[in-house]
Write a structure and sequence with these properties.
- The chain is of the alpha+beta class and about 80 residues long.
- The chain has two helices and four strands, in the order αβαβββ.
- The chain has one domain.
- A two-stranded parallel ribbon has the order 1-2.
- The radius of gyration is 14 Å and the shape is globular.
């Protein structure tokens, strides 16, 4: 998903380099998070932050003592999440 976001910025005439250091992702599954990191790296993305963990129960990104905020969020919600 993050790689497609980079492609969309480029297709729309934007400078994808403006996104350097600003790509963040969190994935619960170890294999999927590793694939995401490898995929971004192999496609030339630099300075991204992919963490493993449950985004809803244990968010990984903080700014000081508060949750980090972002200008744009893309998500694939866990529709099968048990309550």
């Amino acid at each position: 998903m993050l790689l497609e976001a980079l492609h969309l910025v480029k297709e729309q005439g934007g400078d994808e380099k403006l996104m350097l250091g600003k790509l963040y992702g969190q994935e619960k599954n170890l294999t999927t998070s590793a694939i995401a990191r490898m995929n971004l790296f192999l496609h030339g993305a630099e300075d991204f932050h992919i963490e493993r963990g449950d985004t809803l129960r244990q968010p990984a990104f903080y700014s000081g003592d508060s949750l980090a905020t972002f200008d744009c969020v893309i998500a694939n919600p866990p529709f099968s999440l048990d309550r």
